Amino acid sequence: MTEMHALKESKRETHEPEDFLRFTLGQRLEHWVLVFTFFALVVTGLPQKFHDAALSIWVIETLGGIDNARLFHRIFATVFVFESSFHLGAIVVSALQKRFTPSMIPAPRDFRDAFDWLRYSVGLTSQRPHFDRYDFKQIFEYWGIVFGAVIMIATGLILWFPTYATRFLPGEVVAAAKETHSGEALLAFLIIVIWHFYSVAFSPDVFPLDQSMINGKISRERMIEEHSREYARLTGIKGAPPHPSEQSTAGGSSEQPPNGPRGAPRQTDPR
Amino acid sequence: MTERNELTVIKLLPPLSRRLLPLAVCAAIAIALVFLRMAPAAESSPPPAPSTEDPNAPCLGCHGDSELAMTFPDGEALSLSLDEEAYRQSVHGDKLNCLDCHEQNRRYPHPLPEVSGRREYAQAEYELCKRCHFKNYTLTLDSVHFEAMSKGFAYAPLCTDCHTAHTMTEIRESRTQIAEACSKCHRSIYEEYASSIHGSALLEENPDVPVCTTCHGVHNIPSATTASFRLGSLDLCAGCHANKELMDKYGISSNVLKTYLDDFHGKTAGFYQKEPSEVWPETPVCADCHGVHDIKSVDDPESQVIKENLLATCRKCHPDASANFPSAWLSHYEPSLDKAPLVYLVKMYYRMLIPFMVGGLALYIMLDLWRLARNR
User: Fold this and answer.
1) Where are the domains of chain B?
2) What is the 3-state secondary structure (H, E, C) of A31-51?
3) Residue B23: what pLDDT?
4) Residue of A172, A174, A205 to mutate, testing the B interface (most B Cβ within 10 Å of its Cβ)
């Protein structure tokens, strides 16, 4: 991602649109494969959880019966397992090639960010926290998906092969796996539909749709606003000067080395 | 005996007159009805109908003889005697006279039925009942029994096979009699049933247990080997077993259908039930685990679902099931800290986490919108 456009002062002032590449084609494809399998699994799975609902009955009937629905669910589950393995494999390869950037690894800073974001949201401070490539919400969501995937795959396999699983595990584990699979599925579905959809579509910041997962681009304005630390790192220019808060807080801390990874300025605590 | 004389009178009439006699009677009644005020009986009392006398007396003159019998061309004998007392006790005893059913035997000597044996004779007479019992007759046309009959199975049951010809009682008043009626043909199933929890209770005059007809229906008995019967059997069992009041009487859970439908097997069956096409459901229904006619109490050591026998029952469908496998099924219990605590805890975890998470996310979105509103 170092092929980012160089920034020109003139353009900054005229607010001419200048885009940064946020997601590579491979990352976008991976995301949409995940979207497709996730919703295919939701459509074939949740009607089994809510088996009495009229909508569930309609869905199952449309899919050609419960046996078909289960077959499709297992096919998409297999795709999902391959997708997850691919993702893990890509990380391992990038680590071996020493290209791995720990942008998704949570750090204590993210917890401070979350706290600062809360204070900022409720108006206790006018200082907007500075985020790097991924903000704390995105990191939380990513790890939610990772842990969710591990839980879903493990319990799904137990449910798929119960006679095999009970050679090593007590029978009650199968029933517990069913409960977990069902609960975790609903939880993941609600988080995606409520939170992710809000963040990428319904939020006034991006409405009607954040295009970055489609064309891969993010505008310079949004980079400065939402990923100021990454912006600074990439351009060597301290991002977000428009923020009055930047001026209000100690200016010294804003003179960060552009490529300094984490450990960016911590806001002074107003308490 | 005057009845004898009347019979003779009929016999003495020339054959043509005898054949026209019923017609004449009808005509006379019709005429009588036209002249409204006139008593029809008085006008139309040619030889055979003295209302004050027992109209069955002429018949019983011969058929009261316990020795009276006939032999069919195939050599089979049929007793022609009627136990009048038994007949009088039957539901028809005070309603029907011999000739109401045996109309063709008004003539004497009686016309010989054109059949070779007893069964054929019964079949020839079979449709007599429908003159009064048309509704039940029509129902039988949808039954497996009629299907067997239409395929030429001579012993497919006729009305009289279950109800008897002359000693029929109000059959629903005696539930044991129902089982016994069926047992005449379905002997081995009756024996299985009699040893089951339901059958043995029936024999002890229990009024609550199902008899054959409770599950199989009465006149329109459907085939019990179709997909729709298999799926419908869930509701047959649930008819009693989901009835809390009835189950409480015996200390049995009335939650069995719900817990079944909430688990993997039951969900499958539930969806099959709602599908329009008729697919044979491979998923187990009540009878696959509990047995069909030989259902035992879950405390009975012979029960297929008692803990010791459950693995063998599971292996009917899951041949590679190991000893741990049966406890994957919670035995119709709702998970609780006593029964399946792990499942219960997982359930509670998500029951608390999901509203907490959704509430948190909703709060976040509201704060975010508030922030944006303030900053604009």
Assistant:
1) 222-334, 337-368
2) HHHHHHHHHHHHHHHHHHHCC
3) 62
4) A172
Those residues of chain B that have pLDDT short of 50 are 1-11, 13, 35-47, 49-50
Give the C-alpha separation, B284 to B278, whole Å.
16
User: For the CA atoms of chain B, what is the radius of gyration?
Assistant: 33
Contact flag A183-B347 (C-beta cutoff 8 Å)? yes
- Nearest residue on chain B to A48, alpha-carbon basis: B267
Average confidence score pLDDT of chain B = 86
Sign of the CA dihedral with B195 first, then B198, B202, and B206 last? positive
Cβ neighbors of A211 (< 8 A, separation 6 or more) are A217
pLDDT of residue A235: 84
Residue A171 with chain B: CB contacts under 8 Å: 324-329
Round the CA-based radius of gyration of chain A to a whole number and report it. Answer: 22
ipTM comes to 0.80
Closest CA of chain B from A160, distance in Å: 11
Do B346 and A173 make contact, defined as CB atoms within 8 angstroms? Answer: no
Q: What is the pLDDT of residue B39?
A: 43
CA A164 to chain centre: 34
Asked if the C-beta of B371 comes within 8 angstroms of chain A's C-beta atoms, the answer is yes
The residue to which tokens 């199968």 are assigned: A174
What pTM, to 2 d.p., does this model score?
A: 0.78
